[in-house]
Amino acid sequence: VWVKMLTDHGAELASKTLQGHPFLKGIDISENSITDAACDFLAQFVQKTPRLQQLYLRGYLFEPTRISDIGGEVLARSVSCKDGFELELDYQQVGCKTAA
Prior knowledge:
alpha/beta; three-stranded parallel β-sheet
C-alpha cells in the first residue's frame, strides 16, 4: 500500500493556512516527511497562533531524512515563550547526532 505523506511544502502550506486560528490548541503532523526545511514555517505558525499549546512532530522511523538539531533548535526557540507548550519530536534526529 502506498501512502502519500505530508512533505515540507505541505507543512508550509498547512501552517500558513492555519496560522492565527483563534481556537486551535494542538496539531499532530507526526510520521510524515518533514525535515529542517519546514521548521521556520512551523516556528512562525507556533508564534502566530495564540492558543496553540501542542505540536506533535514524531518522526517516521524509516524516513532517512528527518528533523535534525538545526530544526529542533528553531522549534525550541519558537515555543520557549509559551508556558506549558508541548513539543514532541520523538523519532526525529534531534540530539542523537545521526543526522546526515
